[in-house]
User: Fold this.
Amino acid sequence: MMYALVAFYQESILSNITTPRLTLTPVTLADAPFIQANFADDSILRWMRHPVPYPVYPEDGAITFLEKVVFPQREAGTHFPFIIRRAEDATPMGSVGVKLDTDHTWEMGFWLAGQFRGKGYMPEAVIATMRWLFKNTTAEVLEISNAVSNDASAAVQQKTRCDFHGVFPANPPYHCGDTENDVWSMSRQSFIARHGL
Ligand SMILES: CC(C)(COP(=O)(O)OP(=O)(O)OC[C@H]1O[C@@H](n2cnc3c(N)ncnc32)[C@H](O)[C@@H]1OP(=O)(O)O)[C@@H](O)C(=O)NCCC(=O)NCCS
Assistant:
């Protein structure tokens, strides 16, 4: 009974997210080849850390991640990744996801394939995903961290008007070698004031 209720709840909140330029679709197994072909690139992996494999991303890395990590966690209501698509033709461009950290605090991660960077797609996707999170869950705070030398990611946090908390030790370190990260957050209250629900 409990399982059926949870499944019904997940299904009801797992809808597409739309913005003027983007459609965000809940990740499925059919997205594994896209993730494998694009995430397994040093321009992305260098900004990740354990448990993301590095420097060699295994050939079954995307499928394993979806089947062993994402789907069970999504079933439990604690992890919601989306594929970011161009609205006009549904071309997959990257991914953004939110994951329960502790209590009512969630964390966000994101990446875009190289040819789609620098067009402001990620700030658009991040704000839409934050809105989805605050509308559909009891999240009170969303945290985002980036390696200190990841200026492109820090720019996204600034453009989406996150609050900056400071530089903290990163344990484990990032694959690029950075041992510190910038920590940012957006509270439910700040999101409503800055972007509207
Ligand atoms: C971080 C990332 C998602 C930014 O997405 P985006 O849609 O390119 O974001 P924007 O277009 O707003 O650009 C953000 C910053 O990227 C940099 N940038 C601009 N054009 C770029 C390009 N063609 N290629 C790479 N970076 C570029 C700039 O610093 C820009 O900030 P600015 O507009 O204030 O100068 C993307 O660079 C990426 O996927 N990086 C690799 C993965 C990663 O770092 N993920 C985050 C881990 S915390």
About this structure: The first strand starts at residue 17 and ends at 18. The domain at 17-195 is CATH 3.40.630.30 (Aminopeptidase). The longest helix spans residues 121-136.
